[in-house]
Amino acid sequence: MKISLLQVNTVVGDLAGNADRIAAGVAEASRYRPDLIVTPELSLPGCPPRDLLLQTGFIRRSLAVLDDLAADLSGAPPVLVGFPEPNLSGTGRPLFNAAALLRDGEVGEIFRKTCLSTGVLDDGSYFEPAAGDSRILRLGGKVVGVSIGEEVWRGGPVPEVIVNLSVSPFAAGVQRLREETLSRVAKDHHVAIAMVNLVGGNDDLVFDGRSSAFSADGALVARGAAFAEDIVNVNLAVPAPQRVTPDDPMPESEIWRALVLGTRDYVHKCGFESVHLGLSGGIDSSLVAAVATRALGPENVLGVLLPSPYTSLESIEDARELAENLGIRIECIPITPMMEAFNGALRDIFAGRPHDTTEENLQARIRGAVLMALSNKFCSMLLSTGNKSEAAVGYCTLYGDMAGGLSVIADVPKGMVYRISRWLNRERPIIPERVLTKPPSAELRPGQIDQESLPPYDLLDAILYRHIDRYESPEEIIAAGYPAATVNQVLRMVRSAEFKRRQAPPALRVTGRAFGTDWHMPIAARPWWR
């Protein structure tokens, strides 16, 4: 059986545009003369549609576009398209997560999802799980099982072939688990499997594509491109590998490509062409500038130097060298006069009180105000440059360095920021070597370094990983050999920073548990372990 997997990059809410993208893919895939063409889950509305699904007008329009698409594809092979179907039973939630078979110019059989996801896509809040519906399609003498999302892991009726419409978000290392699981299901049930996955960035989620097919003995016979649109044509009657796109599972490479795709799509799908960011001469802003340059082209990236009296000459030199290496424009706007104006305006009310983090935060907020002014004036998106380690413990300034339309690396721990930067420099120097070796510093006071306020980043990242990704309590982390005082300090900072994270820009999700997307902690709460 010949199947074409349309690995398309859809735009949430763009029903007509998504239909056009599907039609273009079908036209190209039809040259392969497949028995069936399969699109990703919810390919027509784009995924995740979230509360758009609550708007009845949106659902009505999606059904009309689906009918129009079926008519447009009247001469094409049968096509499975993911869409939201109204639940007319009168009980349960008002929609099904469904796939429609478009054949002979009409909408034919409907296949409804039975196993709803509970993770970042949150199917259960919008859809009713289908119960007892047939998921068998008879096509060209073959018995085809149609599954949507996680259903494919659960088996069920064992046909000759299973096709799976998926929207599996990227996280570092997840592709290996996907392929291992699909291979095991194929081998255990002795059934060939073809899975099509969405590609592209939609808000904070990045979908990496890498659609795949497996023979009945569990062998990988096809894999689509990573982080790019693709059409995967595969003959499931042939057990030998046919078209397996090479894959680089290194976490540095995977995360880099996810950040580039996520940034490009977020900026463009929000209607922007250009971006800018504050260049401090530090590692975080350097990596974000590199991501933006690869995603959007150097002509669409502006680096802004905002030196204060505490900014070192070395930092300015490093920022300029980075801009030259990337080929991006650079502007310098000293903030010393603005700092003096603020300090003068606040002198009387602050009289008798020592300088502290108040004045340090004022610097960050001045920079944020200037950068947002550039965004307003030039219709350019401001990229925030904070990393996950800083976001976790609140080592960032609300309305200052947290300002922006997208937080590019807010799900990347500090240690991984360094690893990606060194990986990026493997062929030619992009990020200056001094940026990789000097102690990290916010440079908000003379001689300041991060480790005056935080534990060493390797220790901090290890504690955060255990608490955030592995759900470990202070007692469990301490029992694993970490210093009790440091553990308690870090977790106290995590709790105290919750209100900041609620006000942060969207962050591209690249790990298994990202703030905002996967993390839903109360703000006004006390630690349960006391």
Describe this structure in words.
By secondary structure, this protein is of the alpha/beta class. It has two domains: 248 residues, Carbon-nitrogen hydrolase (Nitrilase/N-carbamoyl-D-aminoacid amidohydrolase), CATH 3.60.110; 206 residues, Rossmann fold (3-Layer(aba) Sandwich), CATH 3.40.50.620. Helix content is 35%, strand content 18%. Helix 1 links the parallel strand 1 and strand 2. Helix 4 packs across helix 5, helix 4 crosses helix 10 and helix 5 crosses helix 10. It is elongated. The model has no long low-confidence stretch (mean pLDDT 94).
Q: What is the mean predicted local confidence, pLDDT? A: 94
Number of beta strands: 20
Share of β-strand residues: 15-25%
Q: What shape does the CA trace take?
A: elongated
Task: Fill in the CATH topology of the largest domain.
Answer: Nitrilase/N-carbamoyl-D-aminoacid amidohydrolase
Helix content: 25-40%
Just name the CATH architecture of the largest domain.
4-Layer Sandwich
Computed structural class: alpha/beta
Low-confidence runs = none
Count of structural domains = 2
Question: What labels describe this entry?
Answer:
single chain; 530 residues; alpha/beta; Nitrilase/N-carbamoyl-D-aminoacid amidohydrolase; Rossmann fold; 2 domains; seven-stranded mixed β-sheet; six-stranded mixed β-sheet; 15 helices; 20 strands; elongated
